[in-house]
Amino acid sequence: MAIEGIWSYAPDSGHVEGQELTGYTVAATDGTIGHVDRQADHFGMRHLVVDTGVWIFGRSVLVPVGVMTAVDTAERKIALSCTRGEVKAAPRFRTDSETMDRVYLASVGEYYHRLPPREPTTT
What we know:
Layout: E1 25-28, E2 31-42, E3 45-51, E4 60-64, E5 68-72, E6 77-80, H1 84-89, H2 102-114
Parallel strand pairs: 1-6
Antiparallel strand pairs: 1-2, 2-3, 3-4, 5-6
């Protein structure tokens, strides 16, 4: 996948353009990580801000939509192509202003782009 692809919904993910994902549960390949607090598209870099709750001490994480493998609207659940540890190791999300910081977003995109490819999982 080209680095630009990390910011685009995969055509086979089940995502429908304009679909509101706020509140959906987010699951990595090895377990749930939290729920979508909000979704954003700044500079063409589409991403989700995921509230992890107590999993990583109430911290939120930023996840590019290109790592989504499936959207289950009936279950309100999103599956990712990465593990919980990989999400936790991503560049730390600290403030909402980072969702509009090109340098921060680029570092997140590069991190996820470098992860090893995996077989898609279902929700």
